[in-house]
Prior knowledge:
By secondary structure, chain A is an all-alpha fold. In chain A, about 75% of the residues lie in helices and about 0% in strands. Chain A starts with a helix and ends in a 6-residue tail after the last helix. Chain B has eleven helices and 14 strands. The interface between A and B is medium-sized, with 27 and 31 residues.
Amino acid sequence: MNLRGVWAIYNYEMARFFRTLGQSLISPVISTVLYFVVFGAAIGSRIQNIDGVSYGAFIVPGLVMLSLLTQSVSNASFGIYFPRFSGTIYEYLSAPVSPMEMVLGFVGAAASKSLLIGLIILATSAFFVPLQIAHPVWMVVFLLLTAITFSLFGFLIGLWADGFEKLQIIPLLVITPLTFLGGSFYPIGILPPFWHTVSLFNPVVYLVSGFRWSFNEVSDVSVWVSLAMTGVFLAVCLAAVSWMFRTGYRLKN
Amino acid sequence: MQNAAISIQNVSKTYATGLTALKAVNLDISPGEIFALLGPNGAGKTTLISIICGTVTKSSGTVSVAGHDNEGDFRAARSLIGLVPQELHLSIFESVWDTCAFSRMLFGKPRDDAYLEKVLRQLSLWDKRDSRIMALSGGMKRRVLIAKALAHEPRILFLDEPTAGVDVELRQDMWRIVRELRESGVTIILTTHYIEEAEDLADRVGVISKGELILVEEKKALMRKMGQKQLTLELTTPLAKLPKALAALGLTLAKEGRELVYAYDMQKPQHTIAEVLQAVTDAKVKFGDLHTEQSSLEDIFMGLVKQ
Lengths: 253, 307
């Protein structure tokens, strides 16, 4: 195993992040503050408590997940798309680095970045609502699994995309609707039965539900179901990535 | 070949578009030689290099690098190879030093600042080590690509059109570097359009055309074997008609009778130069000057590719 090679890729990707630290952090923090002002202070004050939790505190896990998902996807997709676009991918392909080592470097860096952003948003939210984390270990587990899974998903998009438009379209058309309809801002139990059933096909529901449970033990589905579904999605992404590398899809002619 | 630096057997490549870029290519590269791959645009030079280096997947055949299969034992094979691509593919926001240190690490080698310094000095990049790549000229960027390829101390170096779009000074610098590398025992495979480059540098030459390796030969043998020499006599008074005695020797008239030309094979000329000159004197033809020309690799190459 070429650990140095993995470290080289990881380091390079992280350096890119730290070079633009201001931009990387300011925009997610500002959007989180806006959500808290609108949903927490303005509208939230008129919404009754959900399972004994104030609306402001209820949306914290959803907001963290929202950023974690979008950041993971955009970091990882850009990370692998850019070398393909600029041609520097030749070096990765001609180096003694296996496909899985490449994934480890790129996806590891993307997941690290989005984890950092997720934690900063969590810290930001502590200024607006009293934070209580009932199960810190579970919280970390869900954070990690989500960051890794969606970084893998982003990596797939970065491999698939053959233009900057395609790089934007999946996050816009798939990730954003899934997160907004995935119970980030409401418990899916309040939906009519039909939409409730539809929601159960949304993988984000399980992530948000499990993550929220680790904060205040309020959840839409059992934490084990959440964990299992996250595992399934992770496995699907892993399988797709390894298929792509085996066939050389979009990487090699 | 058992101890070949690179052994290519029956390698074919058909792209997804249906384009067949290589047809059953066989080639052995010996350790320590400079091998020049010549061919017109689209002949398959870059495809062949890319297959050996692992950036393009072959359709069939095998490639081994110092005995290591380039797919089954890709780590060992790729560790030995440095690749300088044709295009200036560089991450422009990085510094020269950082990008070279990255290349070394990517290939799994431990940090070695002294070695990297040596490479950068050899390529006259040391003063630019902290410059961002976007601030460098095209020629400097090409040097950076070479430095990156050398960063992990490869035993085999691929140069894909290293001097395309490079000024004269830099080209000569490149040639000097290539020779220095060969002296340190590095095997070098280069592709080029510039025949003079192959003529000047290479030990062996391969000519590739339409995906087929149509010729592999020691450069000297090739020039000897295929080299035509030509003797030209500039006449003081133009001849209207070629004397029969001279026509019998194979001489021809050129430039409206102002020149007498004798083309001959260097290996086994039918008549010696002395015989020809004697016959000219006997025919009472006076000439003011004479010169000989030897066909270059370029002429040979053009002759081959046109066939």
